[in-house]
Amino acid sequence: MKITVMTADEQILTLDIDRDESVENLKALLEVETSVPLQQQQLLYNGREMRNAEKLRSLGVGDGDLVMMVSNALPASSPAPAANNLGFNPDGSAVNPSAFQQHLRNDSNMMAQLFQNDPELAQILLGNDLNRLQDLLRLRHRQRTELQRQQDEELALLHADPFDVEAQKKIEAAIRQKGIDENWAAALEYNPEAFARVVMLYVDMEVNGVPLKAFVDSGAQSTIISKSCAERCGLLRLLDTRYRGIAHGVGQKEIVGRIHVAPIKIGNNFYPCSFLVLDASNMEFLFGLDMLRKHQCMIDLKDNVLRVGGGEVAVPFLHEKDIPSTFLDEERNAKEASSSGAQASSGNKEKDNTPKGGSSGTSQGNPTQGPDFEAKVRKLVELGFGRDAVIQALKFFDGNEEQAAAYLFGG
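The line above is the sequence of DNA damage-inducible protein 1; the predicted structure tokens follow.
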């Protein structure tokens, strides 16, 4: 390991030494580097004097740590006040933070090393907040202490009784944790973007002539618009409340109705679109799988565009800076509202007022029961719809498969 030694005359030394070496051997090495006799050296680590017989490991000295070297060759009347000011308290904080800060500031070589190896400490040293400096020194001390504790535990486990069940469990947990830590370190090096927040996909659209930022979500069955957004777009006059119900997803949202068709503008082209209208204050407009499939959309992540109509129109996905901050929570709310958006509970629909299919009188028995009905259910489920939504849609239209499919696709 490498440690940094600061002498009383402000000389900075970087030494490569084994953690199992004694303090006496460290002093011998320093005697060669500084010409200060071993007997006249006093080493301080975290404000505590290091005794000759002690091992560096037992003192908690780790890679990159700072050790102060004081020469005790001074007369008894001169107790080296500068060195005392540069010492450390047992909690790792500086005895005199102002003197410690000024001392490091005056050493251009040391500051250059800090900017390269520890920019956080270097920036705090250049500032005027001594409390932040003390807090950082205490934090580093706690981290070193915790690291030393873990290493001591690992060392103890290596010498544990192989027939001790509890010790073997701890060894197993330590090995597993080491694997996790190595996996995490590899991810930081080779896949750092995995730790960043993923911004969802938004595009600029116009709904009935009103500009909106649409959340593109291929995981939502239905295209959804909030009641407030539908009102702003002048579409509430078209709201069919016969389709009210409950959208079941991660949570539940009230469906206040359905708008069967309205124009949306993507790029320079207009497309017909149908919406479920939800009473969701935190969700504005979600472009779901039903319309993505209807208009043959392709999510092109290579070129970062949404292609519509089989590629006739390509609109870019918005960058994070172009997405209003209020939309960041919308992603979660939209997911909760629409992960099963077409699965509306029929308990709130008036059966006598619901549009029916065209198979009345032609089928024998109940068209929503029997093997034929189950075959229709399986066929529609294979298209990607939830089983409950398919059954509900088929019952809606008295077993008419085509009309149920049109309803599920938003037709």
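Note on the example: The longest strand covers residues 252-266. The longest helix spans residues 130-158.
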